[in-house]
Automatic annotation (TrEMBL):
<feature type="domain" description="CBS">
    <location>
        <begin position="277"/>
        <end position="328"/>
    </location>
</feature>
<dbReference type="InterPro" id="IPR004800">
    <property type="entry name" value="KdsD/KpsF-type"/>
</dbReference>
<dbReference type="InterPro" id="IPR046348">
    <property type="entry name" value="SIS_dom_sf"/>
</dbReference>
<feature type="binding site">
    <location>
        <position position="222"/>
    </location>
    <ligand>
        <name>substrate</name>
    </ligand>
</feature>
<feature type="binding site">
    <location>
        <position position="82"/>
    </location>
    <ligand>
        <name>Zn(2+)</name>
    </ligand>
</feature>
<feature type="site" description="Catalytically relevant">
    <location>
        <position position="193"/>
    </location>
</feature>
<keyword id="KW-0479">Metal-binding</keyword>
<dbReference type="Pfam" id="PF00571">
    <property type="entry name" value="CBS"/>
</dbReference>
<dbReference type="InterPro" id="IPR035474">
    <property type="entry name" value="SIS_Kpsf"/>
</dbReference>
<keyword id="KW-0677">Repeat</keyword>
<feature type="site" description="Catalytically relevant">
    <location>
        <position position="152"/>
    </location>
</feature>
<dbReference type="InterPro" id="IPR046342">
    <property type="entry name" value="CBS_dom_sf"/>
</dbReference>
<keyword id="KW-0129">CBS domain</keyword>
<dbReference type="GO" id="GO:0046872">
    <property type="term" value="F:metal ion binding"/>
</dbReference>
<dbReference type="InterPro" id="IPR001347">
    <property type="entry name" value="SIS_dom"/>
</dbReference>
<comment type="subunit">
    <text>Homotetramer.</text>
</comment>
<comment type="similarity">
    <text>Belongs to the SIS family. GutQ/KpsF subfamily.</text>
</comment>
Length: 328
């Protein structure tokens, strides 16, 4: 393609808006294809004792990879197999217990059509997603999902645009319908995302990151304010718990409490911690999700919280611990 000059007054914004309009209109018509065939496809995948294997060539292959990834992360075990590679050995990855979803806008993908006799022989359930119910793939399928759109957003009608968007959305509809049917939870989702920020927020618990043992700042109720300040400085958590020898909580004293003591003009040198501590104090249980502890601390405008079983002190959690763990 030779370099040409930009047409005078060409409107990139309008060109982009035209694409959105065409694709919106295509998706609006997709609603009619969420029908009995869609429900049958969902049931087939729901009761699948193996895995959902997704196939597609070209742009359909890219959409298929995304579909398989979405299925896998929302409770439907799934993987993508390239049809070309499948014809050269990778079809051995497919078992009779699996369900195959094959994507092709025309429904005439030679690479997929070549695999169908083998899939039939293996008695693998076949769901085909095409725009043409009369196509070869549609006729060969156990279940056909139609994703027909009025036209492509490409003005030449050549580049897959509206059609791939429709296939992607149909894949999302399948995945989310199955997610709801399985009663899939946010914690289930986190189990397949342990390395990301979402996994940290949904799986990490307070007892995974709290300070324990000698790291806990604590003094007796008979301690002086000076002794309490030294303990706060040593443990560097901006607070100290006031408790007895058995670690039963009696109160808490924080940097913020110290500022209030100064504001009142108190004699810091002669005060006992019992005179200025906050009785009781906010606490969480050790199995509390770290993100819930974060929400509590933010709502109460505090930077640390005691971790306890009733009045029994088990640890201390600071906002910095949540930052280091990537929860914030």
């Amino acid at each position: 393609m030779s370099q040409i000059d930009l047409q005078p007054g060409f409107d990139f914004q309008q060109a982009g808006k035209d694409v959105l309009k065409i694709e919106r209109e295509g998706l609006a018509q997709l609603d009619q294809y969420i029908n009995h065939d869609f429900a049958q496809a969902c049931e087939k995948m729901f009761y699948c004792s193996g895995k959902v294997v997704v196939m597609g060539m070209g742009k359909s292959g890219h959409i298929g990879r995304k579909m398989a990834a979405t299925f896998a992360s929302t409770g439907t075990p799934s993987f993508f197999v390239h049809p070309g590679e499948a014809a050269h050995g990778d079809l051995g990855m497919v078992s009779p217990q699996d369900v195959v979803i094959a994507l092709s806008n025309s429904g005439e993908s030679n690479e997929i059509l070549a695999l169908i006799p083998v899939l039939k022989r293996l008695k693998v359930s076949l769901i085909c997603m095409t725009s043409r119910p009369e196509s070869s793939m549609a006729r060969a399928a156990d279940i056909h999902l139609c994703v027909k759109v009025p036209k492509e957003a490409c003005p030449l009608g050549l580049a897959p645009t509206s059609s791939t968007t429709a296939a992607l959305v149909m894949g999302d509809a399948l995945a989310v319908a199955l997610l709801k049917a399985r009663g899939f939870t946010a914690e289930d989702f986190a189990l397949s995302h342990p390395g990301g920020a979402l996994g940290r927020k949904l799986l990490l618990r307070v007892n995974d990151i709290m300070h324990i043992g000698d790291e806990i700042p604590h003094v007796r109720k008979t301690a002086s304010l000076r002794d309490a300040l030294l303990e706060i400085t040593r443990k560097n958590l901006g607070m100290t718990v006031i408790c007895d020898d058995l670690m039963k909580i009696e109160g808490i004293f924080t940097d913020g409490d110290l500022r209030r003591v100064f504001d009142m003009g108190g004699d810091v040198r002669n005060m006992g911690i019992a005179d200025v501590m906050t009785p009781g104090g906010i606490r969480v249980r050790p199995n509390t999700l770290a993100v819930d502890a974060l929400n509590l601390m933010q709502s109460r405008h505090i930077t640390s919280v005691m971790v306890a079983d009733g009045d029994q002190l088990l640890g201390v959690l600071h906002m910095h611990d949540l930052l280091r763990a990537g929860v914030v």
